Batch of 3 targets.
Target 1
Amino acid sequence: MDLEHSSISKPMIMAFHFLGALSHIQKTTTHSTFVCRCHRIRCAAYTSMALSTGGHSAWSRALLRGKLRRGGLRKRAVILQRPRKRAVRLEEGCQDGADVLRRLVPGSAGMDSAELLDETADYIRCLEEQVSLMRSIVNVVSSL
Amino acid sequence: MSSRRNRVSEEEINELISKLQSLLPETRRRGAGRASAAKLLKETCSYIRSLNREVDDLSDRLSALMATLDSNSAEAEIIRSLLPS
């Protein structure tokens, strides 16, 4: 099934994964500490973000790799190779900013500026969707 | 020849800069016109950090809400067990 032509939108996939994870967390953390549950919810948030993109971006693969490292899954997803453009260098004063960005966006360490900005754009959009999803859930649950 | 290469680079840089600008929400797009790439990068990093903090904060709230939900269901369970079946 090709995700591009699927009628299921990315936010819906994200919601599906995140709500499923929350339901599982609620069942399994009745006697856990607040901090433990908090940490699991946070992990679930980033995982559902990564899953919603279908592995098309490097940051999502990096997040999932980090998650799966424990399970020992070595299978690599099919990576869509983008045509390599000539590396573009930003002006001199930007290197520090670009390095900080590379630390913030997972999996972007070895990228040139053009790829880095593409990844950043995708990452920011997904983060915004995740935040919006979590806000809606908090609103619904707190009004119960 | 080098000038031609510089021109192409500059177009690409401008494209990247406008892309950076479009990432930030309206409230963070400071100043009219084209801000420097360095400033935009800094602003972008700060925006990502604030989004990460929001996810943390919302996780905290969800965790607290789930705790109250748990206690509610426990009470519901007790009530249910007290009622004659």
Note: Chain B is about 80% helix and 0% strand.
Target 2
Amino acid sequence: MRFRAKIVDLACLNHFSRVINTIAKLAKTCTLCLTDSKLYFILSDKVANGGVSMWCELCQGNFFDEFQMEGVAAEHNEIYLELVPENLSRALKTAQSAKAVKIKLTNKHCPCLRVAVELPSLSSSSRIVTHDIPVGVVPRRLWNDFREPSVPDFDVSIYLPVLKTMKSVVERMKNLSNSIVIEANLSGEMNLKIETDLVSVTTHFKDLGNPAWASEHGCQSSAQGRDLESMAEARIDIKKLQQLLAGQQVNPTKALCNILSKRIVHFILLHEDVSLQYFIPALA
Amino acid sequence: ILHCFLFLLVFGRAIHAIARISDEFWFDPVEKGLALRSVNSSRSAYAYVFFSSMFFQHYCWTAVSQPCQKEKQLSLPCKLIIKSVLPVFRSVNVLERNVEKCSIYTNINDHHITFQLLCKHGVVKTYNLTFQECDPLQAVFAKHMCPNILKVHSRLLADTMIHFPTSQEEVTLSVTPLKVCFKSYTEEDTDFSKTMLTEIQLNPEEFDYFQVGVDSEVTFCLKELRGLLAFSEATSVPVSIHFDVSGKPVAFSIEDTVLEASFILATLCGIEKETASQQPPCFSQRQESNAAAVASKKPQWNGNAPNTEPAKPASPLAKQEVKNIPRVREREVPGTEGAALTEAEDYAMLEGEAAESHSQKVRRLPVVLTVENLGWFSYFYKYCIFQFHSLFFGAVSCTEKDAISHTFHSLATASDTEEDFGSSQV
């Protein structure tokens, strides 16, 4: 099992750092899957995570100048590593002005991702900062836990409002309640509601637009037969939603969510080179 | 009686830097300027900042007459609780904008020091702080005897330390004549699968002055150093690092025409581990827990020793042991202590500290002893994980007349000077 990669372009490095920072805000530990062409940051829906799951996909060619990997075996050319994304985030944090960043899988005392940052210095040779991030190698028999989650047959699919606005609304609501209800319909209307003994607050968004893919997706009958005004709703943990929104460092090109009434809310945030899917289950 | 105005930013940063060492500090105005000193509870870090009278816009110091007047009179230094002073200089950056002048008055009779900030718009903030009189504190460290000396701009050091997480306790500096590196401290039982390790390699060319007489790896507490780094950035004076092999203290100092500062930190010296203990790698914790283990054998010094509250015990083990650090009287009689110290004192004199070679001065000023010079301590220290060489602080009352026969009123306990001489089991 071997892996080595190099980033030389500063813009790519910053972009990669931002992605890692976002992941770090969403998950304490997660699984990194490396293949020939892509990197995946995966959080599977275990009870320990509160049932949330995450699937983040990057095209390695958009970030790395050099990327070589060799999986466990020829027909299973993948590497699955368990790591703490915060460590990776920290290692990259001080690499803002780096000449190059190299990442390599090593096994000195234990399996590690060695991040070597080459920084400019006053002298002829560069300053080199090395971070050894411990990782756990996930054995092949467990790889099935980390398959891309299937998109459920949702009731409503709608584009999200401007994330910044949504974030500030949710942040204020977080102080009042532990759970929040997201409801939306196929007419581009979405409401965020909280209700406590003392107060109930609802924020209404309209003209959001609904993505057209419902028809492609095979749940035609339910989508077509569905009343445009009728709301699909789910009550979810407000902290999880706030984490997702707060972690976004760059505005996505597309942001939408799919709601399966009373079951699950599926968020999809698309950037040019990165796609992030986040599933928050409904509370009982 | 001291009365001065001063550059807030630099002074404030100095206070903050000292605050990282301890909760209280010695405020010692002398004719030439103002000295601030501090030592941490485990005696493994000592800070000294001296502002010459030229640093201040106005500096006026008058001696208070005292009954015994053999030598040049020192006004009695006093001890302040730093927590009370910190608020005065809290947000130094903001202060600079709003405060036009700061004056410091002391009134010995009243046991008060007054910090007065004259701010914009006629606002005057006055802080009256009580101080305790105490014996003087001074560490003497033979910098010029160190084989390894590095001098570098504080910016470089700060840029290096920034790569370590703020929670990183200890850092190892490793040098050979060809390269320098700072790395996270690891020991044999570090759980590598859980800790992220960082290493920074620097080129000797980046240093203003680079002298490596002996290859060495010294491990010191990063937290205590960070204060000095911030302070030296404010002054933009380069930082000198004097050190020797592991176990001997490392001194970080800055010096310019109007001020000088030294932070002297003890370094770890790894020897064979005791298998039973599970001590976490933190200075103050380890020292306290070791101290507890050897409590019954600790030599006890007289004097108003500050209480040894541990700095930051993170492990439950350290916590429970900390409570039990008794101040146990040493078996040996004071006379022996005094005599032993005298040997050490002589040694200190022999070390060639030019400034202290004058016997009269030595008598009055306390002496710093490195443990290795005091073989007789080894008797007491068989339980420990690592061997510490740390600085000792002995205080001398200025009424002492005879260098040889008096007992030292020391502010330090010898508990932090464990040495594991495996063979000398008692």
Note: Residues 10-26 of chain A form the longest helix (17 residues).
Target 3
Amino acid sequence: MASMHFIFSDTVVLLFDFWSVHSPAGMALSVLVVLLLAVLYEGIKVGKAKLLDQVLMNLPTSISQQAIAETDGESAGSDSSPISRTHHRWYLCHFGQSLIHVIQVVIGYFIMLAVMSYNTWIFLGVVLGSAVGYYLAYPLLSMA
Amino acid sequence: MDHSHHMEMSYTDPNSTMPPSHHHPTTSASHSHGGGDSNMMMMMPMTFYFGFENVQLLFSGLVINTAGEMAGAFVAVFLLAMFYEGLKIARESLLRKSQVSIRYNSMPVPGPNGTILMETHKTVGQQMLSFPHLLQTVLHIIQVVISYFLMLIFMTYNGYLCIAVAAGAGTGYFLFSWKKAVVVDITEHCH
């Protein structure tokens, strides 16, 4: 069974067969990669929220009212072409956001699996990366 | 010692097969062990692999041995991840709908030029023993359990199951968050 307590070690295999570390230099590089991964994860979280804000602000109110009417009951009116084009653009935006969500989920799980290696250096890299990522990204959230 | 954790588990069951050997620990570990893989096998893989032989899934009776069973497990995990995303959105909308008590607190604060301004704080909340809050608590427990199940499924390191989790999360987000995005636009313009 894998190690079930934190150890300081220069040897670890992370996530994939080819990512095997057996030297201090390799460990330092791996910690850096994991740190950047955690920074990216925090950045994606903020980026997704900002993207949603931007999409909602640029969205003409008519499309959301029409979407509300369609969800509430049957809408008998036919779409005029400008509204259907913005519909189309909005569905594309939402599809893009779903892809970003998948990337966020996958990166989150990769970070979890990296911490699961129970290597203390990797764990410290994740913690530091989350801290740096939060520090850099969250002020951008309140900016307009 | 960093090598010792490879040697602690002695494999007692000679009948069950191991997951595909390309993630066998002795190929990736840094120590050479002279090909001693007859009685030292890693029961939990630590790198990603694609396979459907002898995949244990969450519970002791649930073992995947054939491609058909793997396909069924893929669909089940996909639906579980979709349900998790939907549960998140449903809890948010339930919370918004049930927030009826809005308390306003006004307090004087010093403003510029020595004037006194009244600052009003708005807090929304629920009663502790009300039905909406109990429902939120039950849904929260279900959400926590499902999120841990998804984590454990991802921890099997099986490539097919991990792809099922990611795809299910993406599809669930796409289907359920669409409705949420529309509603948020109307009811609040600062989210």
Note: The first strand of chain B starts at residue 55 and ends at 56.
